[in-house]
Amino acid sequence: MNILYKHKSTRCILFSLGLMITINSYAQSNIVSEFVSEITNQKFDLAYQKFDKRIQSQIPQNQLSVIWQSVITQNGELDKYEFNCQELKDGFEIHYYTCHFKHQIIDLKLIFSREKDKVAGFFFVPVYSCSEETGYKLPSYFDKDRLVEKEIKIPSGGFELGATITYPTQASNAVCIFIHGSGPQDRDETIGDNKPFKDLAIGLANQGITTIRFDKRTYRPKMAIEEITVDKEVVEDVEAVIEYVKKAADLRNKDIYLVGHSLGGMLAPKLAQQNSRVKGIVFMAANASSLGNLMVSQSNYLAKLDGEISEQEKAELDQLKKQVDYLRDSLNEFSEQHKLPLNVPASYWVSLRDYHPGQVANELTIPMLCLQGGRDYQVTVTEFELWKDALKSHSNVDFKEYSKLNHLFLEGEGVPNPQEYQNHSHIPYVVIKDIGTWINKQK
Predict the structure, then answer these.
(1) DSSP readout, 374-387?
(2) Of 13-22, 89-98, 200-209, which gets the smallest average pLDDT?
(3) Crossing angle for the helix pair 10-18 and 61-75, nearest 10 degrees?
């Protein structure tokens, strides 16, 4: 769901812990530092005592070590951690600690309860800037005279999704809805100083295409996940955006296109099958095979990055393979979380069990465009070939591969690795032009 967000992936971590329980909060700094020290030094009994009652009712004490082990499995051993920043947002006091793992640098995000001495939520996210201003700079193809933006709220399943509509100043017959990869992502799919969805919105406005990008419901600390499913994490929110488009006076007559990145691309056929107003799909680094298989291949790749696999890494990989085998052979709605990858509840895996994106896409008659980065180690060109095979009988499906681009469709050099996601860059305009040209020719 990218799984992933992010990688050994930050996406794997975002997926596993980004769905973690979060509630109302405020906190004291000594409690914060104590909790971080205890969790990173694996003093789980002491860390568990700092959870508020809601979290304790949802996570058994013995599961805390399982959660931390999944972090280590995906990112390598922890080298060090340091305070990053803190903020008060939507009534929540949130603290960020930057954790330097062997294969990845990510933030531990902690949310604190009104009791002031209890942890009410925690998960891992890309390195975060508490300032509204990040290192993001507008791309060279930004033209203030060619777009207008409007901030809106879209109701979905008891949540209000913050969203941005980007209108081209020229006539527009199409509207694209962006669908994120996995994890608690904002509307721009922000990773470090990069904002891939914002780049896309700016560039597509130049092509005369309206876009909508929205914050996932898991992005804000308001969602409990006792029975999280892929519908609750992704599908319901995209359907809410589609309903908004169908009713909005300035959008309802436009053709709807889904632009799905990673997990979002994987789920786009399901959404198109359920919504007849969808005119076409753009896949960006979408996986055609199961998330379990992706996790194993990603983890193997990252474990080998330094040229060797330690005994501990081998043991962790073996454990992950056993969990993925369990998904395939024994999963049921009552499966215990410790038997499942990334400590994600059975409800989530069950919701994906019978979904085969290639098969569903093959049943569609709408046009599709499949894009792939040649340097993507998360969703590799092997997945790209699977899409080609699944859709080989369709004359209205196009495929494009970009040899220098990674999973975020940003350029890189050398051996692909998670750290390059932190390098500020932009989606090359050639990619955006390819998408815009393809959509415009469907009219």
Answers:
(1) TT-SSS-HHHHHHH
(2) 13-22
(3) 160
- Token pair, residue 325, equals 């085998």
**Cis (ω within 30 of 0) for the bond into 6?**
yes
Q: Give pLDDT, residue 157.
A: 87
SS3 37: helix
pLDDT at residue number 424: 92
Place of tokens 């902690």: 110
- Residue 179: inside a domain: yes
| Residue 26 confidence (pLDDT) | 27
How far is residue 42's CA from residue 66's CA, in Å, rounded to a whole number?
A: 11
What pTM value is reported for the model? Answer: 0.79
Round to whole Å and give the CA distance between 274 and 176.
17
Q: Which residue has the higher pLDDT, 166 or 193?
A: 166
For residues 291 and 65, what is the distance between their CA atoms, to the nearest angstrom? 23
Predicted local distance difference test score (pLDDT) of residue 163 = 96
Residue 209 falls inside a structural domain: yes
In a domain, 422, yes or no: yes
Q: Are 346 and 337 in contact (CB under 8 A)?
A: yes
Buried b (16+ CB within 10 A) or exposed e, 65-78: bbbbebbbbbbbeb
**Which residues constitute the domain of residue 286?**
144-291+352-440
Q: What is the largest CA-CA distance in the chain?
A: 62
State how far the Cα of 427 lies from the Cα of 278, in Å rounded to an integer. Answer: 25
Q: Backbone dihedral region of 230: left (phi > 0), alpha (psi from -120 to 50 degrees) or beta?
A: alpha
Is 405 or 41 the better-scoring residue by pLDDT?
405
Residue 28 pLDDT > 60: no
Count of CA atoms in the C-beta half-sphere (13 A) of 271:
32
Proportion of the chain above pLDDT 90, given as a percent: 56
Q: What is the CATH number of the domain that holds 250?
A: 3.40.50.1820
Task: Report the C-alpha gap between 129 and 341 in whole angstroms.
Answer: 29
Q: Is residue 392 part of a domain?
A: yes
Q: Helix-strand-coil percent breakdown of the chain, rounded to 5?
A: 40, 25, 40
Residue 146 DSSP label: G
